[in-house]
């Protein structure tokens, strides 16, 4: 066996170990696949029935069935201190180079290692995917200097949105929108990861 192959195997095992450290609970494959199906089939674009029926305000996209499914699952299975109510979630896929690719194409890749400190708000889906759970958005988390403070479900600050108060209150900016984009595009953007998860979901349904 060549040194290059040995090195690759060592890296692969190190990445697998890091992946396991990055989550506090396992999200069933069938739940994740159903969330993807709901995001694909229930249109949330401007002018859609979902958008027309929703009250446009901060967090209105958290009411989409795909995100409600994930958030409700998290509330029933979370192992943190339940500090904040969950509102939406974002998938990430391991890329094989020690980084995750975000489900939303607008977000850059991130090192796998940085997610370990956020494990209380993360679920894994098999050996390649994690789902990051965020607290429901509230205008109370807005300040003029930083914008909207974004929290993980366990209360840790993740970052800030630079959107204005007006954009938030009107629903013109909603972080959950990006989660829906990620779920709706997951099958197309990550076909190999989806195939593995879908197969597991199908096998589980037969048990």
Overall description:
The protein has seven helices and nine strands. It is of the alpha+beta class and 207 residues long. Strands 1-5-6-2-3-4 form a six-stranded mixed β-sheet. A three-stranded antiparallel β-sheet has the order 7-8-9, with no helix packed on it. Strand 2 and strand 3 form a beta hairpin. The protein is globular and about 45 Å long.
Feature tags:
Phage protein, globular, three-stranded antiparallel sheet, 207 residues, alpha+beta, six-stranded mixed sheet, 9 strands
Task: Chart the SSEs and their pairings.
Layout (H helix, E strand, L loop, with lengths): L2 H19 L3 E2 L2 H13 L7 H5 L11 H13 L8 E9 L4 E4 L7 E2 L10 E4 L3 E7 L6 E2 L3 E5 L5 E5 L3 H5 L5 H15 L1 H15 L2
Parallel strand pairs: 1-5
Antiparallel strand pairs: 2-3, 2-6, 3-4, 5-6, 7-8, 8-9
Protein name: Phage protein
Organism: Pseudomonas cremoris
Percent of residues in β-strands:
15-25%
Number of helices: 7
Mean pLDDT: 85
Shape: globular
Relative helix content: 40-55%
From the N-terminal CA to the C-terminal CA, the straight-line distance is: 40 Å
Q: Walk across the major sheet and give the strand order.
A: 1-5-6-2-3-4
Write the H/E string, N to C.
Answer: HEHHHEEEEEEEEHHH
């Amino acid at each position: 066996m060549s040194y290059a192959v040995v090195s690759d195997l060592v890296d692969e095992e190190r990445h697998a170990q890091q992946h396991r450290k990055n989550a506090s609970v396992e999200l069933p494959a069938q739940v994740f696949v159903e969330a993807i199906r709901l995001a694909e089939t229930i249109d949330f674009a401007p002018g859609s029935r979902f958008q027309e029926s929703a009250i446009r305000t901060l967090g209105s996209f958290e009411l989409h069935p795909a995100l409600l499914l994930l958030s409700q699952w998290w509330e029933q299975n979370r192992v943190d201190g339940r500090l904040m109510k969950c509102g939406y979630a974002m998938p990430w896929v391991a890329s094989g180079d020690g980084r995750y690719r975000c489900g939303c194409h607008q977000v850059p890749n991130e090192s796998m290692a940085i997610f370990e400190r956020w494990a209380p708000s993360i679920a894994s889906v098999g050996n390649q995917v994690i789902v990051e759970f965020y607290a429901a958005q509230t205008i109370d988390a807005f300040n003029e200097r930083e914008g909207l403070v974004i929290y993980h479900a366990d209360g840790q600050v993740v970052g800030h949105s630079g959107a204005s108060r007006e954009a938030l209150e009107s629903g013109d900016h909603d972080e959950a929108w990006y989660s829906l984009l990620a779920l709706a595009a997951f099958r197309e953007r990550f076909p190999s990861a989806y195939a593995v998860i879908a197969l597991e979901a199908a096998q589980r349904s037969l048990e």
